[in-house]
Amino acid sequence: MDLPKTARPARMLEAEELKALEVDGVVCARGLLGLQTIEALRFALEEAIENLPVLGGALNRAHQGFHGDIFVWKLSDAFRDLALFSCLPELAQQVLQTPSVRFFYEQFFVKRAGCPVDTPWHQDIPFWPVSGHQIISFWITLDPVSRASSGLEFVPGSHHWRERFRAVTPGHDPYMMDTDLPIAPNYAALREEYGVVGWDMEPGDVLLFGPVVCHGSDANASNSHDRRALAFRYHGTDVRFAPRHATMPLLWEHGLEPGDSLGGSLFPQVWPEVIPSEVERRMEGPEPPSPLMIKKFLEHLVAEGFGPDGEKKLFSASDE
Ligand SMILES: O=C(O)CCC(=O)C(=O)O
Question: Is residue 297 included in any domain, yes or no?
Answer without folding.
Answer: yes
